[in-house]
Design goal:
- By secondary structure, this protein is of the alpha/beta class.
- The chain has three domains: 206 residues, FAD/NAD(P)-binding domain; 110 residues, FAD/NAD(P)-binding domain; 111 residues, Enolase-like, domain 1 (2-Layer Sandwich), CATH 3.30.390.
- 30% of the residues lie in helices and 26% in strands.
- It is built from 13 helices and 22 strands.
- The strands form five sheets. Strands 1, 2, 3, 4, 5, 6 and 17 form a seven-stranded mixed beta sheet that branches. Strands 8-15-9-10-11 form a five-stranded parallel beta sheet. A five-stranded antiparallel beta sheet has the order 18-19-22-21-20, sandwiched between helices.
- Strand 12 and strand 13 form a beta hairpin.
- Helix 1 runs parallel beside helix 8 and helix 3 runs parallel beside helix 6.
- Its EC number is 1.8.1.4.
- It comes from Tumebacillus permanentifrigoris.
- It holds the Pfam family Pyr_redox_dim.
């Protein structure tokens, strides 16, 4: 720090304004702390501006187009469905603006000072911020790091925003590419690949592993894979892309597919092979912090790092990179700073993949429970036997409930099907509260609704199912 520069003293500095950072800032302010939130971009972070929200808007637009095209069997004939991607982008932008504007209003209403710029740690609990109008300095009592993550870039496929795209550029396309090659069969690749296939692109997905969505129960993935094939998506597993060249306006990708060389051609290439935590440019060494080999910071149950004055939350910490996890961690960090006995003690954190159909899981799988030495009982109910699913033409998929056999306590719920993202909320609450199979199936669920699949799967696990044949 240059001698003579004056640092503004503040109780809490939050670096990063995503769903972890802005929530932490608001909660700390609610608890009476003076808070400065530093963000080098628009508040809301990647999730609100270039990730969760924009992608779900694009996915919904694509689903709407696809539904219009395939409604003839219901007696609804729609001809000449056209997708105006510029208008889609304008609508998506309106959704994002409304939400980011809401966040800005909440920050202001809670007295949080927002500073736009890039933050860098200095000595003696000081932070320098490079703003458009020059350097500003803050001296903090506590700091919460919430700097998020960014797409992983493959050396052979550097992002150029025109031919080789990250999810950020793909979500900003104003024209539908005639063909799209997706490198990476994880959740981002499948979500965006599905959307563009519904818009009309010819989509190819290549995945290095033996299966799409590595780490997800293959029985759930199988339903998604079947629907991808219905959309005409080519799926290549055990495949690795090694390079590309551009000829005649197309990208020609060299790949090894199950030991056989292939050249795959497309108008755009979308690379979705994971995300990397943003911890490199903060000057962490100045405060005695060293990320691990993958860039993550270690934290305790209260989100405190090895430096007692600094907390870390969200994508820069271990665990799933989920916005709702970051928000909860932000609340914990803020409450600990305010002197509350708070810690990250969530029994289960749900995960959702917005494919077609959606996948949502929470808690343990049957295999995971058995690996922990538990004797389990499992119930399953198909959406094909659910009245509401059939009336909305969404009968693909099923719900599985895993419980401990001796006590009936629900250990996990796994859903692939319509509105799985919404249904998983009830399941998460049930696991958090220690609910049993009886709690599920003795609770009267409204009919006809999709939520009945949870009740029916629990009843199946308990041997009292009515709407499904008893398994031998």
């Amino acid at each position: 720090m240059v001698v003579g520069d004056i640092a503004v003293e503040v109780e809490v500095v939050v670096i990063g304004g995503g769903p972890g950072g802005y929530v932490a800032a608001i909660r700390a302010a609610q608890l009476g702390k003076e808070v400065v939130l530093i963000d080098k971009d628009t508040v809301g972070g990647v999730c609100l501006n270039r990730g969760c929200i924009p992608s779900k808007a694009v996915i919904h637009a694509a689903k709407t187009a696809a539904t219009a095209r395939k409604s003839e069997h219901m007696g609804i004939r729609v001809t000449g469905v056209e997708v105006d991607m510029e208008q889609v982008q304008a609508w998506k932008g309106g959704v994002v603006s409304k939400l980011t504007g809401g966040v800005q209003s909440l920050l202001k209403a809670n007295g949080v000072t927002v500073v736009s710029g890039s933050a860098l740690f200095m000595a003696d609990n000081r932070i320098g911020v490079e703003t458009p109008s020059g350097m500003e300095y803050f001296k903090y009592e506590h700091c919460i790091l919430a700097t998020g993550s960014r797409p992983v870039q493959i050396p052979a496929f550097p992002f150029d925003g025109e031919h080789i795209l990250s999810s950020t550029e793909a979500l900003a396309l104003t024209e539908i590419p005639p063909s799209l090659l997706v490198i990476g069969g994880g959740y981002i690749g499948l979500e965006l690949g599905t959307a563009f296939a519904k818009f009309g692109s010819r989509v190819t997905i290549i995945e290095m592993g033996a299966n799409l969505l590595p780490g997800v129960d293959p029985t759930l993935v199988q339903i998604v894979k079947k629907n991808l094939k219905k959309l005409g998506v080519e799926i290549l597993t055990q495949a690795a892309a090694s390079g590309y060249e551009i000829r005649d306006g197309q990208i020609h990708v060299t790949a090894d597919v199950q030991g056989n060389p292939r050249v795959l051609s497309a108008d755009k290439v979308l690379v979705t092979v994971g995300r990397r935590p943003n911890t490199e440019e903060l000057g962490l060494a100045q405060v005695g912090l060293t990320p691990d080999a993958r860039g993550f910071l270690e934290t305790d149950a209260q989100q405190r790092t090895q430096n007692a004055t600094i907390f870390a939350i969200g994508d820069i910490t271990h665990g799933p990179m989920l916005a709702h996890k970051a928000s909860k961690e932000g609340i914990v960090a803020a409450e600990v700073i305010a002197g509350h006995a708070s810690e990250m003690d969530a029994v289960a954190i749900p995960a959702v993949i917005f494919t077609d159909p959606e996948i949502a899981t929470v808690g343990l799988s049957e295999t995971e429970a058995q690996e922990r030495g538990m004797e389990t009982v499992v119930g399953k109910f198909p959406f094909a036997a659910n009245g509401r699913a059939l009336t909305t033409n969404d009968g693909d998929g099923f719900c599985t409930v895993v419980a401990e056999k001796s006590s009936g306590v629900v250990l996990g719920v796994h859903i692939v099907g319509p509105e799985a993202s919404t249904l998983i909320g009830e399941a998460t609450l049930a696991i958090e509260m220690g609910a049993t199979l009886e709690d599920f199936h003795l609770t009267v669920h409204a009919h006809p609704t999709l939520s009945e699949v949870l009740m029916e799967a629990a009843a199946d696990a308990d041997g009292v199912a009515v709407h499904i044949a008893k398994r031998k």
